[in-house]
TrEMBL record, chains A, B:
It comes from Aspergillus ochraceoroseus IBT 24754. The keyword Iron applies. Keywords: Dioxygenase, Iron, Metal-binding, Oxidoreductase. Residues 23-91 form the Catechol dioxygenase N-terminal domain. GO terms for molecular function: catechol 1,2-dioxygenase activity; ferric iron binding. Pfam families: Dioxygenase_C (PF00775), Dioxygenase_N (PF04444). One of its GO terms (biological process) is catechol-containing compound metabolic process. This is Intradiol ring-cleavage dioxygenases domain-containing protein. Belongs to the intradiol ring-cleavage dioxygenase family.
Length: 289, 289
């Protein structure tokens, strides 16, 4: 029963227009989406001008997107949707007794073509003004048995101290601050990187406009992106956050989880880095394993 | 109170991130939008893959949009949103005792630069295969006093018999099947046009993909678009539909209203047209008048 004063059959008519060949999951999603979008429009008595502004906004996001930038994703991120979908995924995995390292969003700056590097490599290929070097190392282990996983892949990426990832910044060498590492016979990976610094998400497009209209700052707390992969284990996408960061409690894309906050500690007798981060990654066996 | 098993504070955190300088109406809309989008994601346990497919879909719509095509608008149209917003607008006008000619959606094929033509002009500038000519005429009147309005503008546009508007079809002369007309001293306008024919909305992009996935046809019932304007009166955007059309009850963009269905009747002794449509437009005085 409709609890509003508009045409009580309108939404059902739109939903019922779906034909019998619609995929059941797609039908479920479209039914939910149409209901929520229509309820939103009715509850707020959305005007033609407001709706058209939203259409132009979304078209703008698409027009700004290309291989190097996904503005539609960023718009979702600033309203928390990517982090929420991640939390749903993680909660369902928990309920299925898969309690791996907590996940976090992929974000729009992942590159599928990042090269492998030797363990111990410095991923800082272009000097970063004011950057502080850190030695990041740890093991990839089986979540259940705690045994180290040999030949697992750990992929990391981070922004430079100017707040830009390499594909956003012509001054940075290609694949600067990115690398894939294979774990050795003890399941260990290691690299030199920057202590991450907070940065604003790109705010020269629709997502930035939205943040401005919502009177919000665009900053993300300092973090390093990680993807870990190993045959027979579920892929893990996450981010780790520096405990000292001032934006830890108000991430512009709502991705921080307590279990992903890490401590950089002083490192002695290493001319390459004054800080150290020891971070172990726990992977869950896949269903097929 | 959250009625789900996910983080109960997540959505409030996103909403409460809005700062004090947010425009109140914008805050209301974003609060509603964030709640509905988050509820949709939780209720359907949206996966990362499904969410990313939706992001790519919306980016695709933006990338396909330009001066001649608004695919984002068309995506809204096929889930009924433009027609719903129109119905909300019309219902609010009714409640305010403004009961003009029923409104209908603008659609994505309006052109702001359509030229004026003399009354009685034939807007069929490029021959239309299988087209049936009609003489369309009527008056623009004050909704309250019923008096004719002199010097009002009636703008019409329609698709050709191949289902294409002129800006979609390089074979059609520019501004074919479009025109603006000024009412004469009796408030009358007139033109020769085609009896409209049903056509599919463009289904070579995201909106067409969506229709296909929902197992729906892309057809719109035969219609003529109308915008009527007069100083001191509220602008009217509407469409009129041919009663004989087979798609009248299942318009792919849900725009049909009973009061907008019209009858083409035989016309005698006119070598230019065998059909006639008499259609009066009623305009409501604007608040300032």
């Amino acid at each position: 029963m409709a609890s509003h004063r508009f045409d009580p059959n309108f939404t059902d008519n739109v939903i019922n227009a779906m034909g019998p060949k619609t995929n059941p999951r797609f039908r479920q999603l479209m039914t939910g989406l149409i209901k929520h979008v229509h309820d939103f429009a009715r509850e707020n008595e959305l005007t033609v001008e407001e709706w058209m502004a939203a259409v132009q906004f979304m078209n703008w996001a698409g027009q700004m997107s290309d291989n190097k930038r996904n503005e539609g994703q960023l718009v979702c991120d600033v309203i928390g949707l990517e982090s929420l979908v991640d939390e749903i995924t993680f909660t369902l995995a928990e309920e299925a007794q898969d309690i791996p390292t907590a996940t976090a969003i992929l974000g729009p700056f992942f590159r599928a073509d990042t090269p492998f590097r030797e363990n111990g490599t410095n991923i800082v290929r272009t000097p970063a003004k004011g950057g502080v070097m850190a030695f990041m190392h740890g093991r990839v282990v089986d979540f259940v048995t705690k045994k180290p996983l040999v030949g697992a892949t750990v992929e990391v990426w981070q922004a430079s101290t100017n707040g830009l990832y390499e594909q956003q910044d012509p001054e940075q060498e290609e694949f600067n601050l990115r690398g894939k590492f294979k774990t050795d016979n003890d399941g260990r990976y290691s690299l030199y990187c920057l202590r991450p610094t907070p940065y604003p998400v790109p705010d020269d497009g629709p997502a930035g406009k939205l943040l401005h209209l919502m009177d919000r700052h665009p900053f993300r707390p300092a973090h390093i992106h990680i993807i870990a992969l190993c045959n027979g284990y579920k892929a893990l996408t996450t981010q780790i956050f520096d405990r000292n960061d001032p934006y830890l409690t108000n991430d512009s894309v709502f991705a921080v989880k307590d279990s992903l906050v890490v401590d950089f500690v002083p490192r002695k007798d290493d001319p390459q880095a004054g800080l150290e981060l020891n971070y172990d990654v726990k992977l869950v066996p896949s269903d097929e394993a």
